[in-house]
Amino acid sequence: MLRLCLFILIASAGCTQVQPPNVIYILADDLGYGELGSYGQTLIQTPNLDQLAIEGIRFTQHYSGSPVCAPSRCTLLTGRHTGHCQVRDNYELGGFADSTERGQLPLEEGTYTLGHMMQDAGYKTAIIGKWGLGGPHSIGIPTEQGFDYFYGYLDQKQAHNYYPSHLWRNTEWDTLANGYFHPHQRFDGLDPNDPADYDRYKGPDYAPDLMANEAEEFIRQHASEPFFLYLAHTVPHLALQVPDEELEPYEGVLTESPYDGSRGYLPHIRPQSAYAAMITRMDAHIGRIIEVLHELGIEGETLIIFSSDNGPTYTGGVDTEQFHSSGGLRGGKGEVYEGGIRVPMIAAWPGVISPGSTTDHVSAFWDVMPTLADLVETDLVAEVNGVSFLPVLMGQDPPTPSEMYWEYHGRGWKGAQAARIGPWKGVRLGGHDDPAAPVSVYHLDNDPGELTDLADTHPEVAQNLLSLMQSRSHSKIERWNFAE
């Protein structure tokens, strides 16, 4: 019935024929909950994404799959949260140098991904941007994991540099005009106030521009057939690199001084302006995608979803406090508190999704795969943790939220877990070594900033949350397990 209603809505929007809708899923990298104008940002300009929110629906309680990159992408592509998916933390192979590029822990052979599902439904599929789930010559590369076309960074370490020596086109190295330089350097022995001394961190080919061009070309090539584009932007993940002309709108707006690279990544003479400008340029790239859809006359046949892989960064030269990047939530990237995992999500589809709407439906990355399965009317042949939120997009009664669980094994937490049941959120730290590590309890409706631990006054809630945490499956990677 939902599918029939969907077709009726498409027809009423003026479509001349019923065909499966195109899907563009856009993922930002380390974009905080509060870094878009539509989510309260006042310093960073994001006019195209703000307009997308005006024309679509804004989710206020959407969660990424993890507080860091690779596992978040794994949950998105497999429909399984970090208690069950293969990749539960960043697992780096090789090094930063071109000669040691090996990527991250690859998805296993036989993994059924979102890409496979869309291929099975008759879609042309592409991932353009950052992959991070298998390096060169591994079974985890995109063309082995359900994508007909890939352009971008295979290795997320390479994505620390926006002027790389190369990107990848499918399985082939695409040499760029940039020379190689290490993406983590100190500004020693140079003049921090001389713009010319920062030229060593630039090059002719800015990777986000190249990937935006590829995305436009993919849409043009497949405008007459159903396509699925997973556009995985690298912005605003550090390093701080953006063409100089993008800095002008932020001249005199932000409080900043030169950054010397002492906290990781690359130096920049105007670090806060660079960070804001990177987001604004990404917003412009998204605006170009929307323009192409209008030019081709397929905007009414295309669902766009935008989100971010985790909360805002905690290192490098960015002052995320100045930007209120977490939107008042506790923590950021690398933390299972709300600021690390609650992310913006906007969905727009002219004539189908009611414009200017907002939902507080609780959803997460692992819900995307069943949602798109519902949308394109295909069967899920893999076991997932997610629940379709298509009824929410259609303005119908929301479903019961899926199982909400996260775990993270880095950043010195000695094993971090989080779970949510209704308004109750549990956070448990130190579980790698301590089987009795306690659960802190927060009531998110009353305390979205997770300031007041209610575990002592609500022991039954703490026990229910702990039980959910303990229902996770054992990982093949021993350091990703907890003491029992």
Written account of the structure:
The protein is α/β, with parallel strands linked by helices and 484 residues long. It folds into two domains: 22-402, Alkaline Phosphatase, subunit A (3-Layer(aba) Sandwich); 409-480, Arylsulfatase, C-terminal domain, CATH 3.30.1120.10. 23% of the residues lie in helices and 19% in strands. The strands form three sheets. Strands 1, 2, 5, 6, 7, 8, 9, 10, 11, 12 and 13 form an eleven-stranded mixed beta sheet that branches. It has a four-stranded antiparallel beta sheet with strand order 14-15-16-17, covered by helices on one side. α5 (207-221) packs parallel to α6 (271-296). The longest helix is centred in the middle third of the chain and has 26 residues, at 271-296. The chain is globular, with a radius of gyration of 22 Å. It starts with a helix and ends in a 14-residue tail after the last helix. Residues 7-17 have low confidence and may be disordered.
Put the structure in a nutshell.
This protein is α/β, with parallel strands linked by helices and 484 residues long. 23% of the residues lie in helices and 19% in strands.
Distance between the termini: 46 Å
CATH class of the largest domain: Alpha Beta
Residue windows where pLDDT falls under 50 for at least 5 positions = 7-17
CATH architectural arrangement of the largest domain:
3-Layer(aba) Sandwich
Average pLDDT figure: 96
Using only C-alpha atoms, the radius of gyration works out to 22 Å
